[in-house]
Amino acid sequence: MSVPRRYPLILNPKAKSERARKAFQFVMENATRFAIYATNTADEARTLACRFKDEGEPVVVAAGGDGTLNAVVRGLAGGETTLGILPTGTMNVFAREMGIPFDQLKRALQVIDEGNVEEVDLFEVNGTPFVQMAGVGFDAQVIEETSGELKKVLGPLAYLLSAVKVLGDKPPKTTVTFEEGQTVEGVAVLLGNGTLYGGQFRLFRKADNADDLLDVVVFKEAGLKFVRDTLAGLARGGIKADSGTVEYYQSSGVKVSCERDVPVEVDGEFWGRGDELEFAHSERKLRVLAPEERGVAWWEEVLKTLAPWTK
Ligand SMILES: [Mg+2]
Q: If you measure from the C-alpha of residue 73 to the centroid of ligand 1, how many angstroms do you get, rounded to a whole number?
């Protein structure tokens, strides 16, 4: 009989939600399966993951929401260590993207034990790796102030509403230059590695996080029409390229220049402000333990239920 493998597990013990409490309980009940490392800040989680990578650890498990996960991804970037995920957050965007069960930790642990490795693209903004998406011109601080429950209900609406608030008065002129040569102008830009944005919404309808391409949505104008178009696009299963206020591109690398400093968010976390942003493919892909089949298109159901009120 073989002894089950014991994984280093990075978690944030301070997470206070009901889900986090249950997750902590699950980890404790399965304590023989993990070497548990509690980290208090994202920076600690990143540093620890980076150390495991440098030591050649084959697998590191991140137990947490998107914040903890992103920190661990940043630490593992550029290495061979494979990421396992126990999704315990509110949104679990990347776990959903990869088809990892986000509501059943027992199943999520099975996925880790099954050992199927998927290699996904990592992109960087001015050197900071991200795995799911990034946004230029969106006020991440508004999102941070939004409570977890409200975020769960509003999802991407929280982002869009904050964008309207920020862009409303006088949106900064933003120039997007694609590595392929084309240049376009807009007021805000969203960049997707995966299809999902802000939880369950398939904003980047053509995205494939293993095709070496970044999907880029350029918003041509601010205001209510922009929000309406975007919502209608989401309800149809993704942003349409020809909606007038929104343009859709795919590119291997993008430069974004703004006429003044704008807020930038990376994987849903506030990254900082900048006026010259370079998005590039990371040197190496990220290895992730995930189901071989990404499973049912469950978000189609969500979109169907949303469709009536976005008409
Ligand atoms: Mg892609």
A: 17
E strand residue ranges, 19-78 = 34-38, 59-64
First to last CA, the chain: 59
Note the Cα 102 to chain centre separation in Å. 14
C-alpha of residue 310 to centroid of ligand 1, in Å: 28
**Tens digit of pLDDT at every position of the chain (311 positions):** 566 789 999 998 777 778 888 888 999 999 999 999 999 899 999 999 999 999 999 999 999 888 889 999 999 999 999 999 999 887 788 998 899 998 899 999 999 999 999 999 999 999 999 999 888 876 554 555 555 555 555 555 655 666 566 555 577 889 999 999 999 998 888 899 988 876 666 778 888 999 999 999 888 876 666 666 766 666 666 665 556 778 889 999 999 999 988 888 888 777 888 999 999 999 899 999 999 876 544 455 555 556 555 54
138 touches 159 (CB < 8 A): yes
Structural domain 125-281, CATH architecture: Sandwich (2.60)
CATH 2.60.200.40 domain locations along the chain = 125-281
For the domain 7-122+284-293, what is the CATH code?
A: 3.40.50.10330
CATH 3.40.50.10330 domain position(s) in the chain: 7-122+284-293
Q: Which of 269, 278, 300, 301 is catalytic?
A: 269
SS3 8: strand
Is 118 one of the catalytic residues? no
Q: Please, which residues bridge with residue 288 across strands?
A: 83, 118
pTM attached to this predicted model: 0.83
